[in-house]
């Protein structure tokens, strides 16, 4: 299996590409929550059609045309990608019930060569043996498990390199807190700072199973994290430092994402 991480700018470009493929006589643009709402909102704004979600009232864009082109209306249902089509089919069932007799068109930004026939319109098709993940979704759902996270620069702000370190450990601002439980927090912080680190993780709602801290102050951070991921069987690690991410990604069986840039090393 090959893996591909869709960066945010690339994701936005695909949504723009999708706009040109949407029929101009569409009456309602329906986005599948959560991530389907972003491309749907773009399509609705460009076409001037009302925006809706399955089972929800319509929202009208600034220049939305209220009069239908068609009666019953033509409705396009949009999502960011498609897998089994279960979500898309569920949305179609709801829309069909809300608008009996309506013509429904399905559209996604990304599909595999295997699933492209499950939708009417798509912007980009990727190879069948490729698994994609959106950079924007990392904090909402894991790509693979076990998953590991760095602290400084990912879960919390990066240490500035000067100042009161004990104060920093207690008061560092949360940066990106995942909405799900993670198997490993692997940090370059030394073991002597475990108590402060555990307290901060608890206070900021980080759900985790294992906290791994550096024992040897002379060990290279990237080498230490790569070794830890290999020994613990971590499949994907989210890292703040690009050089360290590259080193971790060279470890057999471990993928590493440099979070700020969205680069995937494997």
How do you describe this structure in short?
The chain is an alpha/beta fold and 266 residues long. The protein has helices at residues 8-19, 37-47, 86-98, 165-171, 194-203, 221-232, 242-249; strands spanning 2-6, 28-31, 51-52, 74-81, 103-112, 121-126, 130-134, 147-149, 182-190, 208-214, 236-239, 255-258, 263-265.
3D structure, described in words:
It is a single chain. By secondary structure, the protein is of the alpha/beta class. The chain has two domains: 2-132, Rossmann fold; 147-265, HAD superfamily/HAD-like (Rossmann fold, 3-Layer(aba) Sandwich), CATH 3.40.50.1000. It has seven helices and 13 strands. The chain has helices at residues 8-19, 37-47, 86-98, 165-171, 194-203, 221-232, 242-249, and strands at residues 2-6, 28-31, 51-52, 74-81, 103-112, 121-126, 130-134, 147-149, 182-190, 208-214, 236-239, 255-258, 263-265. A six-stranded mixed beta sheet has the order 10-9-8-11-12-13, with helices on one face. Helix 4 (165-171) runs parallel beside helix 5 (194-203). The longest helix is centred in the middle third of the chain and has 13 residues, at 86-98. The radius of gyration is 22 Å and the shape is elongated.
């Amino acid at each position: 299996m090959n893996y591909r991480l869709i960066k945010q700018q690339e994701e936005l470009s695909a949504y723009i590409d999708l706009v040109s493929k949407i029929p101009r006589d569409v009456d309602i643009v329906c986005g599948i929550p959560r991530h389907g709402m972003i491309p749907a909102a773009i399509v609705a704004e460009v076409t001037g059609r009302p925006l809706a979600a399955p089972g929800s009232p319509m929202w009208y864009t600034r220049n939305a045309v209220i009069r239908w082109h068609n009666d019953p209306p033509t409705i396009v249902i949009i999502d960011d990608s498609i897998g089994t089509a279960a979500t898309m089919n569920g949305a179609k069932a709801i829309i069909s019930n809300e608008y009996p007799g309506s013509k429904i068109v399905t559209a996604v930004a990304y599909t595999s060569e295997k699933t492209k026939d499950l939708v009417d319109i798509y912007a980009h098709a990727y190879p069948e043996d490729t698994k994609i993940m959106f950079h924007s979704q990392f904090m909402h759902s894991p790509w693979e498990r076990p998953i590991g996270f760095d602290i400084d620069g990912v879960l919390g702000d990066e240490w500035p390199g000067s100042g009161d370190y004990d104060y920093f450990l207690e008061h560092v601002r949360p940066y990106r807190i995942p909405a799900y439980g993670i198997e490993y927090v692997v940090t370059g912080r030394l073991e002597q700072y475990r108590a402060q680190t555990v307290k901060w993780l608890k206070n900021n709602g980080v759900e985790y199973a294992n906290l791994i801290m550096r024992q040897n102050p002379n060990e290279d951070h990237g080498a230490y994290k790569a070794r830890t991921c290999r020994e613990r069987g971590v499949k994907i690690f989210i890292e703040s430092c690009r050089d360290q991410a590259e080193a971790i990604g060279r470890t057999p069986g471990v993928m590493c994402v440099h979070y700020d840039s969205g680069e995937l090393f494997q």
